């Protein structure tokens, strides 16, 4: 074959990064692939705006179908985002026998099963390194270097926007609203950053990692999701006094036949390897039964890192095409997926330690009322701090517990919230990595 031709649908930030690296690193790319990789068409509704990369105008089209229907294009790269149209184009490209690269985490998390099955049905490859962790090659690690292992645990800081917000709240003691407002003004966060700060984006990425790690499409709906919007500088400060920092974590853990799958703010010890992942950086901690612990760290977003991941996928497919491989690797890298599928543990069955912050009246007997309810729900207190009297007489009462069951914690805290000595809503933060 004389060369590999690529068509891109979506010329936004990641599309521009992809074009830039394909152009600037053309020589090293073709030398590593063993064939020329040529950009043949780029489709976008807007073909006028300057993306800051030199591009031959003859490559541009406003019609995605021009890319999909071009018989000379071997690899279609979907970078338009969104759900329905993107899925339609991916399925049409596969139907025409084209290999597909996508960065679309929401689509894979929500309709992955249909797309994975279509790839197998049409005998084409689907690659999606850029969908998780931007430039971090964690999908390659799961599909390749770690593939001999049972994956026991994944723990990810998978959303750079939330991590940036939490890092600034931690380092500068600032409230959530102020940091978000500044991040939006600086163009570092969407306006509003709902998908990021509510844990949805991280849960999309967790669904993809779990699907590869455990060999079967995970139901995104079953992943527990809780965001960072309720966290206060006080919680971050109290966590610090106990020796912890707070991160938005995406966690999966194999409990043997059933999996934990949850995204929420979590307290981790300050000396935990994930505790020092700050700003817009992402990191993924993985544990395999033979390899032990592995950590992957890097920029989880942005034009150049994400473009780098997209082009690594294009190169993988180009190698397969050059070698004339007829049976591509299945999208989830399991030729025989586990028959039993994946079962996710209901959140109420989680067992972990907890941080509680109760806002209470500073009067005699308050602590015993609260500890009585906790005791009745089999929640054992590990340590307590009460901070000084505030102007209105309300004080924060902060506790760490030993391991307890989530259902008991929710019941106990809702009873405590009904006590007449409570002056505000209570805060629960789960503790990890002790
Ligand atoms: N919005 C994501 C983040 C980047 O903040 O990490 C794209 O996945």
């Amino acid at each position: 074959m004389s060369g590999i031709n690529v068509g891109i649908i979506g010329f936004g930030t990641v599309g521009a990064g992809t074009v830039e690296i394909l152009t600037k690193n053309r020589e090293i790319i073709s030398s590593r692939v063993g064939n020329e990789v040529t950009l043949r068409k780029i489709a976008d509704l807007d073909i006028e705006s300057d993306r800051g990369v030199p591009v031959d105008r003859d490559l541009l089209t406003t019609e995605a179908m021009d890319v999909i229907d071009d018989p000379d294009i071997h690899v279609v790269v979907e970078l338009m985002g969104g759900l329905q149209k993107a899925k339609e184009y991916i399925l049409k490209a596969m139907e025409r026998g084209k290999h597909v690269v996508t960065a679309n985490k929401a689509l894979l998390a929500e309709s992955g099963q249909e797309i994975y099955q279509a790839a197998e049905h049409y005998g084409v490859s689907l690659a999606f390194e850029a969908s998780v962790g931007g430039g971090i090659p964690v999908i390659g690690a799961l599909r390749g270097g770690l593939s001999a292992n049972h994956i026991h645990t994944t723990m990810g800081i998978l959303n750079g926007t939330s991590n940036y917000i939490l890092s600034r709240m931690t380092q500068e003691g600032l409230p959530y609203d102020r940091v978000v407002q500044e991040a939006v003004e600086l163009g570092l966060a969407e306006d509003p950053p709902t998908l990021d700060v509510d844990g949805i984006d991280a849960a999309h990425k967790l669904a993809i990692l779990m699907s590869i790690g455990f060999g079967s499409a995970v139901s995104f709906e079953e992943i527990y999701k809780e965001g960072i919007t309720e966290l206060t500088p006080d919680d971050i400060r109290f966590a610090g006094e106990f020796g912890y920092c707070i991160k938005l974590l995406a966690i999966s853990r194999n409990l043997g036949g059933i999996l934990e799958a949850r995204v929420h703010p979590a307290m981790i010890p300050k000396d935990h390897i994930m505790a020092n992942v700050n700003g817009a950086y992402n990191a993924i901690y993985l544990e395999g039964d033979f390899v032990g612990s592995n950590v992957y760290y890097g920029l989880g977003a942005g034009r150049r890192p994400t473009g780098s991941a997209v082009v690594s996928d294009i190169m993988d497919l180009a190698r397969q095409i050059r070698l004339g491989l007829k049976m591509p690797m299945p999208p989830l890298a399991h030729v025989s997926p586990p028959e039993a599928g994946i079962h996710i543990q209901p959140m109420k069955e989680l067992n972990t330690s907890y941080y509680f912050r109760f806002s209470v009246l500073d009067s005699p007997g308050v602590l015993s009322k609260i500890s009585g309810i906790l005791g009745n729900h089999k929640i054992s207190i590990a340590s307590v701090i009460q901070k000084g009297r505030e102007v209105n007489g309300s004080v924060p009462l902060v506790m760490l517990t030993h391991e307890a069951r989530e259902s008991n914690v929710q019941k106990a805290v809702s009873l405590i919230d009904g006590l007449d000595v409570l002056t505000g809503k209570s805060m629960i933060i789960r503790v990890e990595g002790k």
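The chain has a mean pLDDT of 94. The two ends are 55 Å apart (CA to CA).
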